[in-house]
Design goal:
Length: 242
């Protein structure tokens, strides 16, 4: 049984839900592979107008990497390469993307949310970029274009938790709602977007990518995180067997 559910809704909207509630959707190798394959397939779907990434449990969009997954050193590198694949796929996705940010949105979950075009926050949001705490060179590629260099430095260097009010004040959110209503709010936003011509939306998406240079940022950071896993401390500290 997979850890991802897919549903095609009206108006060309696809709803992906992460489905590992017991671990707050922490990403193991299997989920990363499943999610990457789904994004590749959807990127090739000309009928798709908007992609919404959500969760089956409002306690978390994603709590980050699954630190309990047992991997040898080669497996740790292979999994980090899957993270890099995910970050590339979400940045390059040709149609508008919306993340439902409820509960824990931490580490890889925060990177996934930041990589989407728009975010809808639940009022239980706990957003955290813990790269500095773990020694992982990740975060700037996606966060700097969203909130600016100075504030991104502060959030990434401190690794502190950001709640719903601050996330909204920083301009990270397109909408906010009670946690149990956040997915519905994201789908309502998706429908506002999906009524526009699909080709025009994709052209606009490409313009935003080019203006911000996001593809180059992600390529640079992906190389850094894979090299960190190969030669540095590596993640997860408890699960990788040396």
């Amino acid at each position: 049984m997979g850890a991802l559910t897919r549903e095609r809704l009206d108006d060309g909207i696809e709803l992906l839900r992460l489905d590992r509630p017991a671990v707050r959707n922490a990403m193991d190798s299997a989920l990363l592979l499943e999610l990457g394959d789904a994004l590749d397939a959807l990127a090739a779907d000309a009928e798709l107008r908007v992609l919404v990434i959500s969760t089956t449990n409002e306690r978390a969009l994603c709590a980050g990497a699954d630190v309990a997954e047992e991997l040898d050193a080669a497996g740790g590198v292979a999994r980090m390469e899957l993270f890099a694949r995910l970050y590339t796929a979400i940045e390059a996705f040709p149609a508008p993307t919306i993340a439902v940010c409820v509960g824990n949105v931490v580490g890889a979950g925060a990177e996934l949310a930041a990589g989407c075009d728009l975010r809808v926050g639940g009022e239980n949001l706990k957003l955290l970029f813990p790269g500095a705490k773990l020694g992982v060179p990740v975060g700037p590629a996606r966060l700097v274009p969203l909130i600016g260099l100075s504030k991104a430095r502060e959030l990434i260097f401190t690794g502190r938790t950001v709640g719903i009010d601050e996330a909204e004040a920083l301009g990270l959110l397109a909408r906010r709602a009670p946690a149990q209503e956040a997915e519905a709010a994201a789908l309502a936003l998706a429908r506002e977007i999906a009524v526009h011509p699909a080709a025009g939306l994709r052209n606009l998406k490409q313009l935003f990518r080019e203006y911000e240079g996001t593809a180059g940022r992600v390529v640079r950071e992906n190389a850094a995180i894979v090299e960190f896993q190969r030669t540095g401390g590596g993640l997860p500290y408890g699960g990788v067997r040396r």
